[in-house]
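Board notes (copied after class):
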Amino acid sequence: MKRLTICSVLFLFSYSLAAADFSGSVVSILDGDTLEVLHDNRAERIRLNGIDCPEKGQAYSKKAKQAASALVFGKEKSP
């Protein structure tokens, strides 16, 4: 189950940035399904489509945020 979740996040992250016409580095993980990417010196909020992670304060929210962070934090993505 964990591998499926990780693969889904990677696929959707790649797809969501490819759909938008910009590139940038991931500078913040807000929760398991919301990232901030630095683009033109401005943080752009990216919500991963099709991923439903617990929100802050809900059970497993810290684990979801840690998993997303391990996958994408500090990485750069371009279309």
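Comment from the instructor: The longest helix spans residues 2-19. The chain has a mean pLDDT of 77.
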